[in-house]
Amino acid sequence: MLKKGWVVILSLLMVFAVACSNKEEASPSASSSAPASSEAPASSAAASPEASPSASEKPLPKVAFVYIGVAGDGGWTYQHDLGRLEMEKEFGIKSTVVENVPEGPDAERVFEDLAKDNDIIIGTSFGYMDSMAAVAAKHPDKIFLHNTGYKTAENLATYMGREYQSGYLVGMTAGKMTKNNKIGYVAAFPIPEVVYTINAFTLGAQSVNPDIEVSVVWSNTWFDPTVERQAAVSLLDKGVDVLAAYQDSPASIQAAAEKGVWGIGNDSDMSRFAPETYLTNPVWDWGPYYIDTVKKYMDGTWKTEAYWGHMSTGITDIAPFGKNVPQDVKDLVEAKKKEIIDGTFEVFTGPITDASGKVHGEAGKPLSDEEVLSTNWFVKGVSGTIPQ
């Protein structure tokens, strides 16, 4: 069961491409493969909760969140919960939260129950996709937001951020900090989102240190500290002197800290778990997106979309650098971050050579979104396999 995944994604990308090419002709009620959008959520100044809505504005909605884990995971769910709380504060509302909901039939029952009493229902796990699509079809008067998925409908939208941009910057940091050029990476599941983030991380590291080798071990978990620690130790035993992780728990960077190895977490600022050896990591800020959704619901402008936010929107970023990261490294990474934000630098610009020697992309031309979203190969310099 996956929080985020790529089951049948390659075939669906063909549908995505057709949908994009026919965007102008498509009906507003089209139910699949909405074109991706990277526009920034509009800034919102919410009306006072006590104020009566105008004739053209709906009352404050009832909003419900479904989490794959718990807010205390310190990572993925924690960041979503911060965004939820930011939304509550903005509008003065109290949302409903259901934690630890497994994917599958149980999830569909939860979404069905929530749809009876809420106006906006948000699911933060890839594996909720089919359940949300089924429930959305039965409740056309409700809005459903699915994080990381690819199925859309008139009342079902998807949303995500371009975390590979943050991953590149974190990779630059790792490349400057390693002494033996051996970097370990504990990866969750072999899906495009994780694979292309590892690739971006490696390209970032290679941009400052061409001799880098990144060794990948799969944990096949999103939040299982015991398993993730074991995977981390297996890499530490191989002598890596920087350890990164695409997980929801801080288990990997804690294991690295015990060995005196630099650590890189994921999703949220994890510096508190390994203050002496922490470098940085990609982070999320979901609050503006949730606030924008509520505002659009209230003023009647909400429309379905497949949102894939750019770093310039703030939806993805890097955490503050650890206290032992040198200033010259910070300055180098911050300069590249500015280039990404202002659009003068694209992470996946061809030609890119993969681990098998195959070249992807044309010289000087960025890979298309479809190509990035269907990534099933590692770049040259990554040691590891991608299970099929």
Automatic annotation (TrEMBL):
Keywords: Signal
Annotated transmembrane regions: none
Record's signal peptide: 1-19
Domain ABC transporter substrate-binding protein PnrA-like residue range list: 62-342
InterPro entries the record matches: ABC-Purine-Binding, Peripla_BP_I, PnrA-like
Entry GO terms, CC: plasma membrane
Recorded superkingdom: Bacteria
PROSITE patterns, sorted: PROKAR_LIPOPROTEIN
Disordered as annotated region, ranges: 27-57
Keyword tRNA-binding in annotation: no
PANTHER family in the cross-refs: ABC TRANSPORTER SUBSTRATE-BINDING PROTEIN
Protein name, entry field: Nucleoside-binding protein
Annotated organism of origin: Cohnella lupini
